[in-house]
Amino acid sequence: MDTSQLINVAVLFGGRSSEHDVSLGTGCMICNSLDRSRYRVKPVLISRLGKWLLPRRFLEDGDILHPDDYASIPTGGAPVQLRRIGACDVTRGPERLLEDANPIDVFFIGLHGPFGEDGAMQGLLEIIDVAYTGCDVQASAHALDKVLSKHTYVALGITTPNFAVISQGSPHCRNAARLVEGKIGYPCVVKPATQGSSYGVTICQSEKELPGALEESFRFHRDALVEEFIGGIELSCGVLEDPATGKLQPLPLIEIVPKESVFFDYHAKYTPGATDEICPARISPERTQRIQDISLAACDGLGISGFSRVDFILRDEIPYLLEINTIPGMTTTSLLPKEAMAAGIAFPEMLDRIIQSGVRAHRERQARRH
User: Fold this and answer.
1) Which residue of 91, 112, 122, 248 is most buried, as measured by CB atoms within 10 A?
2) 227 by DSSP, 3-state: which?
3) 204, 210 in Cβ contact below 8 A?
4) CA pair distance 54, 95, nearest whole angstrom
5) What are 198-241's pLDDT values in tens digits?
6) pTM for this structure?
7) Distance from C-alpha of 135 to C-alpha of 8, rounded to nearest angstrom
8) CA atoms within 13 A on the CB side of 181
9) How far apart are CA 96 and CA 7, in angstroms?
10) CATH number for the domain that contains residue 203
């Protein structure tokens, strides 16, 4: 095979956030699914301590990665030998990937949560002027901040659960019970302001459960978002950019029915068989169109590009927007690949479109600077 025409892709996964393990699944799935006839793939793990493991070679045909390959990573700076990849240099950043004889053309960001989904990684890659997938710095930071994005949804006229913000150590924190009772009521949902995969999320049935829920949320962020609990049909709308036009397109809705959990928590999201996922969702075409329209409006309001997943609860025919995930999971149990498949877009094709959109966005950024 003539490799001179292949696009060199570095897949970033792992990371410093609490979603490190989820990202391992995402990164391995992406690496294993990228079309090797189009791409040379280099899997780049970022450790929990922020070290970058840079393989000395690209993946070859037949190389299949598994999250267990990264179960035990030394904390020092000496080169590491991984079972399926071989030797990896340990660095504090991506510079060597660009100085190599076969430099990276585009970075596929498979990181979740802070330090990957919040604009930090996007900013680093813009500083070194290289293409990357997904949203830009501003949209990434905006979407991951649940408080800021909630205010945006309200400003756009989009229905979202009633909410309050409680900051650790603030007067509101000391009077949390009174604030929640007066503004939200019970049951309510307490979640960190910047986190994904349902980490730190608690459903409070009564006032006595609130202090523990806030304490759990504060483990992840100083601000806790307290929302009214909306019971109903849990729905997700994937959004995928057309790289030819740069326009976002909604995918078929998927309906999530957890078998054991009250809501789509970490166990339900990442345990095979823990939920029934029905695509297309069992709602009317008119309601489906309405939710897809809201998804596009919310994404436009936040400046979303590339791809995303918009989560809703449908109660009494009213869709409540919960949040937008700018780097949704891409594991074997994840929703976005299933939604794309329902639209006739196979996983490798979806990854191809995401990469093309990232390259397009990079060209546009370069054009604006000159």
Assistant:
1) 112
2) strand
3) yes
4) 10
5) 778 999 999 999 999 999 999 988 899 999 999 999 999 999 99
6) 0.92
7) 20
8) 9
9) 17
10) 3.30.1490.20
